């Protein structure tokens, strides 16, 4: 019989995900983000001009409104650039890691044992640059799902295949004959009270 031990764990020996070298997103993905920002900027400018044209009393506010719109658009492009540079991912032997954030950094680590489904998504502009988004769905719901954009299509397909190969044995081990045995055992547990009541009623009828 093995001796029970419960020794303290040294924090120095714990793995540090901060030391993991992260892969940056594909450079072309920044162009995709810029295209989306440009479309938004055009729509915002058109809406601002229509508002200033219809509202005659807003003519004194033309310069401040146009200036605020230009600043907002410039800020949007600047934040998009910073956000792109702060994103990175890493695929390890037992998990996948994704990092993002501008003011605060968020690092998501998903073990392969938690992954339920893997898919690829190609947006309209991303398809122009042969880019895909790797979508990972976990057992924790939408709040714990992971989406990694800006991946070359071929690389994204390779990562998807790798992850599916990793999670397939996990899925298979959860569907053996033991599950059938558990269902039969649960059925017996449910039926046993009814049988016990029936036996008791028969005994009472016989005067036992």
Summary, kept brief:
With 208 residues, the chain is an alpha+beta fold. It has helices spanning 28-54, 62-86, 124-128, 153-173, 177-205; strands at residues 23-24, 88-91, 95-100, 106-111, 115-121, 131-138, 146-152.
Report on the structure:
It is a single chain. The chain is 51% helix and 19% strand. The chain is an alpha+beta fold and 208 residues long. It starts with 22 loop residues before the first strand and ends with a helix.
Using the CA coordinates, give the radius of gyration.
Answer: 29 Å
State the total count of DSSP E strands.
Answer: 7
Average of the residue pLDDT scores: 81
Which regions have little confidence, pLDDT < 50, spanning 5+ residues?
Answer: 174-182, 184-208
Query: Helix count?
Result: 5
The H-and-E topology, N to C, reads as EHHEEEEHEEHH
Main sheet properties: 4 strands, antiparallel
**Largest sheet, spatial ordering of strands:** 1-2-3-4
Please give the structural blueprint.
Blueprint lengths: L22 E2 L3 H27 L7 H25 L1 E4 L3 E6 L5 E6 L3 E7 L2 H5 L2 E8 L7 E7 H21 L3 H29 L3
Antiparallel strand pairs: 1-2, 2-3, 3-4, 5-6, 6-7
Can you tag this structure with a few keywords?
elongated; three-stranded antiparallel β-sheet; disordered C terminus; 19% strand; 208 residues; alpha+beta; four-stranded antiparallel β-sheet; 5 helices
């Amino acid at each position: 019989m093995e001796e029970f031990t419960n020794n303290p764990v040294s924090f120095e020996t714990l793995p540090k995900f901060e030391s993991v070298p992260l892969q940056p997103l594909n450079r072309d993905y920044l162009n995709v983000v810029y295209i989306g920002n440009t479309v938004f900027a055009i729509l915002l400018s058109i809406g601002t001009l229509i508002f200033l044209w219809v509202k005659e009393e807003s003519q004194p506010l033309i310069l401040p409104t146009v200036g605020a719109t230009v600043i907002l658009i410039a800020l949007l492009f600047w934040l998009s650039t910073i956000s792109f540079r702060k994103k990175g991912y890493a695929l390890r032997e037992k998990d996948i890691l994704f990092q993002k954030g501008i003011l605060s950094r968020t690092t998501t680590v998903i073990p392969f044992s938690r992954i339920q489904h893997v898919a690829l998504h190609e947006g309209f502009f991303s398809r122009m640059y042969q880019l895909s988004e790797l979508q990972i769905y976990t057992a924790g719901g939408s709040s714990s799902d992971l989406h990694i954009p800006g991946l070359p299509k071929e690389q994204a397909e390779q990562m998807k295949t790798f992850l599916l190969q990793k999670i397939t044995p996990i899925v298979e081990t959860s569907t053996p004959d033991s599950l059938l045995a558990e269902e039969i055992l649960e059925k017996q547990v449910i039926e046993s009270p009814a049988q016990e009541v029936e036996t008791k009623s028969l005994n009472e009828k016989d005067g036992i």
